[in-house]
Amino acid sequence: MKVVLAGGTGQVGGVLRRALAAAGHEVVVLSRRPTRAGEVAWDGRTQGAWVKEIDGSDVVVNLAGRSVSCRYTPENLRAMMDSRVDSARAVGEAVAGAGRPPALWLQMSTATIYAHTFGAPHDEASGVIGGTEPGVPRYWAYSVDIARAWERAQREAATPDTRKVALRAAMVMSPDRGGVFDVLSWLARLGLGGPVAGGRQYVSWIHDGDFVRAVEFLIARDDLSGPVNLAAPHPLPQRDLMRVLRRAHRVPVGLPATRAMAELGAFALRSDTELLLKSRRVVPGRLLDAGFSFTHERWETASRDLARRRRAPGRPHRV
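-> structure tokens emitted (319 positions)
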């Protein structure tokens, strides 16, 4: 099987690239700065020589988009929007123009599309799309606008011969250096992994192995299209997530942080508190209904496995 992986040089792309290549598939990565064998140049916006890789491929996976780990300035928010929408439109145009279009287009999206909640979890059928919920910073709505525009660009692409799936992914936890699990582990090992602003906010997550298996499941199941939540079945409050993670790293305590302290920390890390404070309680309704079985359903087993792999020599860097 030939898989074209657009934006495949980040953490999630690295996880998927390694797994697909190890399974014997041909993987072609579209990158703005190709440096390795199997990488082809593209700008994420316009058609070019890279479209030849789409024609005749079996699956295209578009992960491209500016990292959300940044300060949410107007300039960065616009770059996050444009990079996602432009790349989805470019992929859609390439698929539409292919003589032999791929059978499947997997488009990255995000669990952040759902509303901030401490109540019932969001699945694809009954989940509430965010952007209008009360009591949260108004600028959080822009993240939802980005996700909706991202999915709309795929949905509106004229690709009748290609099945389309939007991957509403939660935080993909892998032991790669620089990934989200690595950052959380670093905080925990420093004794800073306590509850943030009380820690009631839910964290949705998925183990990297289950992320790969879910992608393979969606490739094999030709009856699934549209939005699919890629998240473990049991999201948990941030305070519990960090408590379990501290236990996995054998760290007895974690200092709590107030909202003001979280603001200072996010500023120092050049990130934004939405990533810490928005309550994302998302569950994989469609995957479970279709019979997908998670290897790591609960954070207790997932965090132990990830912590063990993080301690192992030779773990990969985030590209």
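DSSP finds eleven helices and eleven strands in the chain.
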